[in-house]
Amino acid sequence: MPYYRPSNLIRKGNADMDETVRSAIMEQVSREGYAKKMGLRLVEVSSGHAVVEMVPQNEDENFFGMVHGGAIFALMDEAFQISCNSHGRVALALNVNVTYHAPAHFNRLLRAESTERHRSKKTGTYQITVTDEMGTLIASCQALAYRKKEPLPFLADPSAT
Fold first, then answer.
1. Exposed, middle or buried: residue 153 (CB in 10 Å: 0-12, 13-18, 19+)?
2. Position 158 in a domain
3. 100 CB-near residues (< 8 Å, 6+ apart)
4. What is the average pLDDT score of the chain?
5. 15: which of 7, 9, 109, 116 is 20 to 30 A away, CA to CA?
6. Would you say residue 104 lies in a domain?
């Protein structure tokens, strides 16, 4: 595992992100069992920002014959998790408020984009939107994260134990 060093910053737009953190998050997500099970794919991560995609399959169907809201929520939550942890500190969800605007369709790409709106020492606020491949707004979400003091566990210096 790479050791976290704050001097490894890269620039993406106006956001600074430590390259070690970005690489470690990308690696963790690629091994995450739930993301694999749901077919979630991390497309982009930068400081306070993440884009995750999925293509809902028939097994994501609810009893109305539509894409289950839980599948859409899982997509939003993955983008939220990545964006709020992109600063290298453990961040956990305190509150998530979702509005579903339009039905999603099977076998059509869904894209969740999470953007940090505010970050303090202890909390962060995020806006997450889900759109389909036609640009239709499927769902939107406002989420609040609690920011702990410790670094992400997969960034810990192995020699520190």
1. exposed
2. no
3. 69, 72, 138, 139
4. 89
5. 109
6. yes
> Helix, strand, or coil here: 83?
helix
Q: Which two tokens stand for residue 78?
A: 């993955």
Assigned domain for 124 exists: yes
Residues linked to residue 146 through DSSP beta bridges, in sequence order: 92, 123
Determine the 3-state secondary structure of 135 from DSSP: coil
Rounded-to-integer distance, Cα 115 and Cα 97, Å:
15
CATH number at residue 41: 3.10.129.10
pLDDT in tens, 59-118: 999 999 999 999 999 999 999 999 999 999 999 999 999 999 999 999 999 999 999 999
SS3 percent helix, strand, coil of the chain, rounded to 5, is 25, 45, 30
Domain hosting residue 79, numbered range = 9-151
Total count of domains within the chain: 1
